[in-house]
Amino acid sequence: MKRVFVSVFFVLVAMIMNAQDIAGHWGGTLNIQGVKLRLVFHVSRSGDSWTTKMDSPDQGAKGIPTGKTEYADSVLTITAPALGMKFSGKWQGADRIQGTFMQSGLTLPLELTRVDGEVALSRPQEPKPPYPYRVEEVTFENTKAGLTLAGTLTLPEKGDHYPVVVLISGSGPQNRDEEMLGHKPFLVLADYLTRQGIGVLRFDDRGVGQSTGNFETATTLDFADDVEAAVRFLKNDRNVRNIGLIGHSEGGMVAPLVASRSGDVSFIVLLAGPGLRGDHILLEQQKEMGRVTGATAGELDYLAAVNRRCFDIVLSSASSREAEPLLKAYMDSLAQTGKLPVNMKDERGAELWRRQVLSPWMYFFVKYDPVPVLRDVKCPVLALNGSRDLQVLPENLGIIKKGLEAGRNRSVTVKELPGLNHLFQTCESGSPALYGTIEETFSPVALKEIGDWIKGKGF
Questions:
Q1: Do residues 440 and 125 make contact, with C-beta atoms less than 8 angstroms apart?
Q2: Which of 312, 309, 247 is closest to 277 using CA atoms?
Q3: Is 459 in contact with 244 (CB distance < 8 Å)?
Q4: Where do the Serine aminopeptidase S33 domain residues begin and end (predicted)?
């Protein structure tokens, strides 16, 4: 009897230890058509229940909540309905779980092993102190909007007469480094230019980081006011003679706006700046994004037709309030007949899309045509685009060039850089889903083009 009791005791101990062993940090790598994407599952236990949070380091995502976590018969199952994701794997002993990852119809093998928790990203271009230049934390006021903007000013160690550029971020709330997906492109760009003898001011968007204000209610015009405040700060407070603007993506819309109405801007650099009206930019973007994610030609054509109708309602309206009932009626008719496109899926998806289109930023963006403003830009302009950019296609360069030359701008340089995506990373595919998987933050070729052009102008 004693022997049976001891055997049962050790079986129970083994079961408890097995359950305890599964808690912790588990990392693995998906291979998606040759592209490697790391995942980390943080599994924890409370009583008889399990919970999991997930990181996708290469996509800059941390602490993603999942739905249900189960561990029974040495099988770990993690589901995340909001992501359409499921992982199921069997404990192999020696801190290894062999399983399968499923998401959106895709099924891939995934082996998990224990990791320390945080998975370090390889970002070899990211500079580390000490820096061979001066670094100052600064603030300046946008008195028109009643807000304070906070940023970092980097200045060459020697000399007094050098140009200073203001970096202008792309769409969405961005900090001063334009940080996304584990990359800090503006930090890399600022470091490179300052080492080349060019000062740089980069700042947190309104409502982001240490800057005050409300980002959600702002449009491109508001961001232009913020940049004008930066120019005034450099001109009046810091006595800078030659001030330039470098705008990325939406920042490439802001820079011409500021340059067209400020005599204090000596030059501008447009990085993947739009030349087409906003609705055309979005339609092209949706088409290319759908193509790389495997949507069929029929799905893409129908999505384009639906979005074209939505944008036409916006274009013909005098305000978002006027457009709202018309958009709702159109989307309701699609939902009732079961004809919502794949990106909306259901009535809730349609409602989210309608809200997005009617948001202050997108309503303005859809209607905004950059060309009339480009005609008013008289200072030297460098416009760059990557050949693999799927968000602002390189064809925009020709439109930018024509717009500037129509206004008799005599100093226009336009270049399409081979093999670069929207973030100016060297890539095989321009898909945004892969931005975080690329170690390079900013192509050295693009950095040199920018630095050489500014220095070549003798500012």
A1: yes
A2: 312
A3: yes
A4: 189-341
